[in-house]
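Sequence in, structure out.
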Amino acid sequence: MLGAGRTVIGGAVRDGLRVSVGNPHLACLVDDALDKFDLATPPGLDPADFPAGGNVELVRLTGPAALSMRVHERGSGETRSCGTGAVAAATAAASATSPPTKTVPGQWHVTVPGAS
């Protein structure tokens, strides 16, 4: 985990957690339905935090150790799945629960548009 970060999606600022999984991610927990977000346009990222750009995950908790996510990958646009994005999303979700969710590695269930 690299700490807090922000993105701008559809004119709204979203807070998230910066995570490096060999490539840079910003995982943002949201309460809104994931299909409400427009990921056709690249989310705005602070170049000081992401000098080479980064992937942005929108993450919604769906149950204990379970989440759904959508991802905008740098240079590609929205994709239907992202392995490192799933790891970043689970990291952000686990760190945001109070107390932090402790699970056996690999025990988060992540649902993405392309698979689960």
